[in-house]
Amino acid sequence: MIGRPGAGTIHHVAFRARDAEEQLEWRDRLRAAGIAVTPVIDRQYFTAIYFREPGGVLFEIAADPPGFAIDEPEAALGRNLMLPDRYEPDRARIERLLPPLSESA
Q1: Considering the domain boundaries, does residue 3 fall inside one?
Q2: 23 is in which domain, residue-wise?
Q3: How far apart are CA 37 and CA 29, in angstroms?
Q4: Cβ density class 72-95: b for 16+ within 10 Å, e for less
Q5: 3-class SS at 93?
Q6: Which of 14, 43, 79, 86 pairs as cysteine with 60 (C-beta 3.0–4.6 A)?
Q7: pLDDT band at 60 (very low <50, low <70, confident <90, very high)
């Protein structure tokens, strides 16, 4: 039986590729094995490819570059909510949904 999203399920399992070259090698291997895999998708802070295993679980292989320090200094990471451009129009709604954080949290 194939799982359906809901309570008690996972959305996806992510793996890390060292770089874009390794990510493309995995994409080629998956395609050669007959597995449907997405093109490389730009997620602003990293790139990703996605595929499903026979039971329906979604897998991701992400490559680091360019990284999370592209829009703020590394020393400031985590101090402000930084969103990919595609989510900026929803910033107010996203901020309302997030729990407040403090320095001690």
Answers
A1: no
A2: 11-66
A3: 10
A4: eeeeeeeeeebeeeeeeeeeeeee
A5: helix
A6: 14
A7: very high
98-to-13, 80, 81 alpha-carbon distances in Å: 23, 13, 10
- Please choose, from the candidates 42, 51, 52, the residue with its C-alpha nearest in 3D space to the C-alpha of residue 20: 42
Number of domains in the chain: 2
Contact 81, 73 (CB under 8 A): no
Q: How far apart are CA 28 and CA 31, in angstroms?
A: 5
CA distances from 23 to 10, 53, 62, 70, 83 (A): 23, 17, 7, 20, 24
Q: Which two tokens stand for residue 31?
A: 């395609």
Q: Read off the pTM.
A: 0.74
